[in-house]
Amino acid sequence: MGHPHLPSTETAVAAVREVAHAYNLEMTVTDDIGADQTSRRTSAGAFAVLDTDGSLPHEAFIELGGAPAVTVQVFPEDDAKITVDGVEFDDVPRDSVPAFLRSVYGGIAYVKGRFFPPGQWLVVPLPGDETYKELVPRTMLSPWLARNFRG
C-alpha cells in the first residue's frame, strides 16, 4: 500500500500537523530555508543560499508533545529522521512520516526483545509490508518503551 505523496517539506509539515491534531498533541516547528541554513547541503557553495540548480531548499524540525517524546527532522532530499524516546530512525521516506507517527501514537509500535543476539528493538509497522526497526540501548528504556514491550 502506497502512502500519499508529499512533494515538499511544507506538505510534510502540514501532514504531521494533521496527525498532531488527530491525537491532540502540541507541535512546534522550526524551519531552515536556504542552502546556507540546511544541515545536509553539499551541492551548494559556501555562503550560498540557493542550490546550484537555483532551488531554495527547505528543512523542518518538528517536536511533538506528549508520550512518547517524538521529533521529526524533514530534509529537502525527500527523507526524514524520526526520533522516538531517544531511538533514531534515519532515512525514513518523507511520504511515510504520517503513517509512522500514526503507528507510534496509535499503539501499533512496540518493543521486541531477544536473547540471541541480545537486544531490544523498537518496531514500527506501517500499513502494507513496510516495517522499521531500530536497536534500543538498554540504558534508554523509557517508561513508554517499557510499557510497549512484547516478549
- The assigned structural class equals alpha+beta
Helicity range? 10-25%
Biggest sheet features: 5 strands, antiparallel
- H/E element string? HEEEEEHEEEHE
> Which segments are poorly predicted (pLDDT under 50) over 5 or more consecutive residues?
none
Oligomer: single chain
Give the overall shape, derived from the CA principal axes: globular
Query: Whole-number average pLDDT?
Result: 85
Estimated share of beta-strand residues: 25-35%
Strand order of the largest sheet: 1-2-3-4-5
- What is the number of strand segments? 9
Distance between the termini: 28 Å
Taking all Cα atoms into account, the compactness measure Rg is 17 Å
Count of separate DSSP helical elements: 3
Tell me about this structure:
- The chain has 151 residues and is α+β, with helices and mostly antiparallel strands.
- Helix content is 19%, strand content 34%.
- The protein has 3 helices and 9 strands.
- The protein has helices at residues 9-22, 97-105, 143-147; strands at residues 27-33, 58-64, 70-74, 79-84, 87-93, 110-114, 119-125, 131-136, 149-150.
- The strands form 2 sheets. The protein has a 5-stranded antiparallel beta sheet with strand order 1-2-3-4-5, with helices on one face. A 4-stranded mixed beta sheet has the order 8-7-6-9.
- β6 and β7 form a beta hairpin.
- The longest helix has 14 residues, at 9-22.
- It is globular.
- 29% of the residues are buried.
